[in-house]
Design brief:
It is built from eleven helices and eight strands. It has helices at 53-65, 84-93, 115-121, 135-142, 146-159, 186-201, 217-225, 229-238, 266-271, 288-291, 309-312; strands at 23-27, 70-74, 97-102, 125-129, 171-175, 207-210, 253-256, 262-263. Keywords: Iron, Iron-sulfur, Metal-binding, S-adenosyl-L-methionine.
């Protein structure tokens, strides 16, 4: 796989600084039961990286002591971490909003048959990736049989009350483009998804979140191999909207890797671009332990490269979907 970091300029993107820390996005493991072409984590069944007991202990301390509001669990397939349920229970006891970034097929994997019931019992928000409402497109991107297993997972969640109009059990879907293009308008695509999934499969969900593909990892490598990398980067730069800078997720979120190290976002984590913190003595990488000593990250500079244009192009992009309609 080709490394795209040397192709991402460190000087072009406008400087931005942090606001109030509201969310921890924790990458529990790079292991996954799928191996998707667009995955910026390069996750897959053979990956062994998983958060250690020591780092989990510090995570619990941060949850207890720091005024974060949201714990966003991601991977890989975060549910494949052996202590996933313990982490969820702890965060919910502390009153945190918990988001599970679920690939849906994990719900039918051996050993996870009761996972959907657990998520409902803990009132966990499910953000589920479904890159299209067509079997052909999903299976092309994610593998044969993935669409059928995803629909089965959605039906499990619907049966438990997820996706109802009252919004009590939140089920959001995630869309990303099939190739080197920007997502279509989020509101219109959400209406299309809801219409097709309801009519064809009697599936309901709350919101669709559109995410722009990042020019890194597998997707970035495929662009380089096809000679499309420079054109895609130019599309992102040409579509830049400065007003999106105020809403980018890195201003209020910290990404945590499986070793407990901190990054400004999940994409920087995959590029190994560590968060910049002043006062680190004897080491050059910020860690979860540092959050126990800091009351605020306000004003902290955010590490940027040209891949950041993916979050500010067009309607904007974040782990919560488009930044504006």
């Amino acid at each position: 796989m080709r490394d795209t970091l040397p192709l991402l300029d460190a000087l072009n993107f406008p400087p931005i600084r942090r606001g109030r820390l509201e969310a921890l996005q924790v990458n529990l493991t790079y292991r996954c039961n799928q191996r998707c072409l667009h995955c910026h984590v390069n996750a897959g069944p053979t990956r062994q990286e998983a958060m250690t007991d020591d780092s989990l202990s510090v995570l619990h301390q941060v949850i207890d002591a720091h005024p974060v509001q949201t714990l966003d669990l991601t991977g890989g397939a975060p549910e494949m971490h052996p202590r996933f349920r313990e982490i969820v229970r702890h965060a919910r006891r502390e009153g945190l909003r918990v988001i599970d970034r679920c690939n849906l097929t994990i719900l039918s994997e051996p050993g996870h048959e009761d996972l959907a019931e657990f998520l409902a019992e803990q009132d966990v928000e499910v953000t589920a990736s479904l890159p299209c409402y067509s079997r052909e497109n999903v299976d092309r991107q994610r593998g044969d049989g993935v669409f059928e297993a995803s629909i089965a997972g959605l039906r499990q969640l619907n049966a438990l009350g997820y996706g109802d109009d009252d919004g009590g059990m939140v089920l959001n879907l995630v869309y990303n483009p099939q190739g080197p293009s920007l997502p279509p308008p989020q509101a219109q695509l959400e209406a299309d998804y809801k219409g097709h999934l309801a009519e064809d499969f009697d599936i309901r969900f709350n919101h669709l979140l559109t995410i722009t593909n990042q020019p890194i990892a597998r997707f970035g490598s495929s662009l380089v191999s096809r000679g499309q990398f420079n054109d895609y980067m130019q599309l992102l730069r040409d579509s830049y909207r400065p007003e999106n800078l105020n809403a980018v997720m890195c201003r209020n979120l910290v990404s945590v890797d499986w070793q407990g190290y901190l990054y400004d976002c999940d994409f920087n984590q995959m590029l190994n671009l560590s968060m910049t913190l002043t006062g680190l003595i004897g080491r050059d990488r910020a860690h979860l332990r540092d959050l126990l000593q800091l009351s605020s990250l306000n004003g902290n500079p955010i590490v940027t490269r040209d891949h950041c244009y993916a979050c500010t192009a067009g309607q904007g992009s974040s782990c919560g979907g488009a930044l504006k309609d």
